[in-house]
Amino acid sequence: MQDTYRIALGADDAATAMKDTMAAYLTERGHQVTDLSAADGEDYPDVAERVARSVARGEHERAVLVCGTGIGMAIAANKVPGIRAAQIPDSYSAERARKSNDAQIACFGSRTMGVEAALVCLEHWLVSDFAGAVRRPRWRRSSRSSRAT
């Protein structure tokens, strides 16, 4: 884990206040923050794609997206090849998003959680690193299927 990151930050109109608080929090901790939020007439998919592409190109190591629920941003960002974005509703999910899934983008919902809780989750996500690939055997249907043939 490195101490500071180049972080892209993006939000739609529903999440400007949370985004601003997160930007201040990240800057205070020494991260380089670039705000790529919505311009006039843009909706969350435009923001999510712009931010995700900046991570995919290597301009930023990590990113944070904020909208009303975080769901739409995560879906839109995950459409960019090579990107893993995770909706972060709690600190356990934040940690697992990094450790298990190597998510480069954390997505938060401004209407589904308070700012203080979001900052705790953001910190858990920032300090967690990918634990490495875990190999599991593929699930196979047993020879005794429950389906009628």
From TrEMBL:
Gene3D superfamilies: Sugar-phosphate isomerase, RpiB/LacA/LacB
Keyword field: Isomerase
Membrane-spanning segments: none
Domain of life: Bacteria
Keyword Plastid: no
A GO term, aspect molecular function: intramolecular oxidoreductase activity, interconverting aldoses and ketoses
Family of the protein in this entry: Belongs to the LacAB/RpiB family.
Identification of the protein by name: D-erythrulose-4-phosphate isomerase 1
Organism: Streptomyces chrestomyceticus JCM 4735
